[in-house]
Amino acid sequence: MKPINFIALVLFICGVTWVLTLSERSVRRIQQAYYATMAPFLKGGSSIETRARNFLEEIEHSKDLENQLRAIEEEYIKLRSIEGRLRVLETENAELRRALEFKEKSRLNVIAARVIKRQPATWWETAIIDKGQSDSIGAGVPIIAPGGLAGKVDIASEDTCSMILLTDERCQVSVQVAGTPEVGILHGTRGRYGEEPRLILRHLSREAAILPGMKVITTGKGGLFPSNLLIGTVKEYTPGPVEGVALVQPSVNFDELGVVFIIAQKNEPEG
Amino acid sequence: MGWYHLSLLSLVITACIFQQFTPSFQSLCDAGILLVPLVFLCAAVTVGAGPMLLLAFTAGFLWDAQHVITPLPPELAGNPEVYDDPGGDVKFGYSIMLYALMGFFMQGLQPLFREGKWHISALLAGIAIFLYLSAEYLCVTFVRGDLIISRTLFLKISFTALLTMLLCPLVFWILYRLAALFHHTISYEGLASERNAAD
């Protein structure tokens, strides 16, 4: 081995040792700084992505109109084009109305945020939202979406937050099967890719009276999530020798996570 | 350390920014394109062991800064009587070691690359991505427990390796351009000296 390579290897080992022995607080600070650096790119990229999607939708729409060109007159096509655009606006309007209605209906004090990046990781179910410490949001704060609980804040930087989705194995929630005394800890699953997400509910009684279709809600125990937030419905219950395990279908559609609501600050922002 | 090496560092950081915008394909078992590992693996084959380790450190550090889920401080982790599992994950920095291992793996066939057979290195990069993802998944599994191996997992890793590998020629082209720009010679010193001695 060349001396220079040996020195490089020694320096590398020292560097790795330093990184591996960093305290969790230091790691979180590094991650906060990383997300703060990435925030302008993410926000910029998100707006470009939105424009591109609108553009593609317009192209798609234009293609539809081209097919109709053969059969109808030019004026009619123009009207159809206008109608199509109005339909897009109408859909968007309806979506925003639903979101607003959800916000108004919610008993909780919430802050609306937009998901600007979904699942940038390989094994981790995470997303980036466009609200951060500047909106008094800190780590651990619960996030809900139309449908129920969506996850919690992991790292909060100045303008953005990284959220752990409910579908990640590391997002644990104390829940109860509605209408029964059964309580347990629910978390995401590993090894399901390209399939409908499922959640695992553990620590249930060995032979609990749980049937498919029963609602699962948060208990509020443990101090992380408020009570009575909908999580999903039971798909399957398997009694075991020690404890029962249920498979739960989340009520939130994680494939179309556009707008989320952060439950108002209860923790001080980090850093 | 020359301008070429510095340009590689910039390239890794740029890849990290572009990585934010790479899509995942739900129809291909959520497979994605891993730009940061790809740029690192391709760059690793064009430099010596020292600069490769520096690149591995940078790429691994940035990768973990983005991905690793660090446990919340105890005051935010909830009541330990209810949430008895602290929710920790793989240790920040583990990727640096994986990157270095993959870098050495790539350098194993460096002589062929330096003879101009970049397509073999491209193929090797695909294999390295497959191994990297498998190792990463095993690391996650080791920490979290419950070894879960499914068909979709295998497909996700395979498709990701394949999709990433398809971008290899583009990355090698960029590297050749950078090498030309900064007058860095991508040639095998060992072979060159042997040939010189033979002449």
List keywords for this structure.
heterodimer; A: 271 residues; Thrombin, subunit H; 2 domains; six-stranded antiparallel β-barrel; B: 199 residues; mainly alpha; two-stranded antiparallel ribbon
Structure, explained:
The complex is a heterodimer of chains A (271) and B (199). Chain A is α+β, with helices and mostly antiparallel strands and 271 residues long. Helix content of chain A is 35%, strand content 27%. Chain A has 3 helices and 12 strands; from the N terminus they run H-H-H-E-E-E-E-E-E-E-E-E-E-E-E. In chain A, helix 2 runs antiparallel to helix 3. By secondary structure, chain B is mostly helical. Chain B has a single domain, classed as Arp2/3 complex 21 kDa subunit ARPC3 (Orthogonal Bundle). The longest helix of chain B is centred in the middle third of the chain and has 27 residues. About 3% of the residues of chain B have low confidence. At the A-B interface, helix 1 and helix 2 of A face helix 3, helix 4, helix 6 and helix 7 of B.
What is this structure's SSE topology?
The complex is a heterodimer of chains A (271) and B (199).
Chain A: H1 3-20, H2 24-69, H3 74-105, E1 110-118, E2 126-129, E3 142-145, E4 148-156, E5 161-165, E6 173-177, E7 183-188, E8 199-204, E9 215-218, E10 230-238, E11 244-250, E12 259-263
Antiparallel strand pairs in A: 1-2, 1-12, 2-5, 3-4, 3-12, 4-5, 6-7, 6-9, 7-8, 8-11, 9-10, 10-11
Helix pairs in contact in A: 2-3
Chain B: H1 3-19, E1 24-25, E2 31-32, H2 35-44, H3 49-67, H4 94-107, H5 110-114, H6 118-144, H7 151-166, H8 168-181, H9 189-198
Antiparallel strand pairs in B: 1-2
